[in-house]
Amino acid sequence: MCTLCEVSPTQIDLLRAQPDLAGAVVAAVQDEDAALRLQRMTPPQRGAFEAARRDLLANMQAAGSSPPAAPFGLPKAFGPMARPLDLQKSWHILHYLFTGHIDGSDGPGAALMTGEPLGPDVGYGPARLHGVKETRAFDAFLQATDLARLEARADYAQMSGARIYGLPMGSDGPAAHAEEIQREVAWCFPALASYMRAAAGRGDGFLIWLS
Question: What is residue 159's predicted lDDT score, i.e. its pLDDT?
């Protein structure tokens, strides 16, 4: 799962000065999200969530970080956190459609798989920071990208052969899977473009991580 969280210039400076804060931001986002979801979880789901949270704290300790005080508190100087954006498993589909690559590449369109690594492993490596300049460049790329053309590039056979993460599975067939990919792109791309438009407009950056 891919999550983004807008961060202000002040927060960017604090994250660079104290990289372990990136792990605290991730934990705080996960904890806030959990507060909304825990009451709807079944006992097995709740157990899996608590295990994932324990793993995050263990990773922070293994990296030499001090876990933040419950409930994953951040220093007052950090200020209020922005609303995060959850791209779920669609992040890799977007990255491939943006860049034509399955892994890291150059250019502003590759922002979902690049950035300045900070702090402990939070699931699939550390969180990555994009500063104000990089955020504006990613926003400009997104605003210049046409949704219809993006959907037209979503070739299920090609993407399946490239082993894109998060593709639909099952026995429905390639045509149904292609339609499902287009539906995924139709919700996640506008959500991402809107989020980056707001962040860039406020002169902010963003933190991104996989968990």
Answer: 80
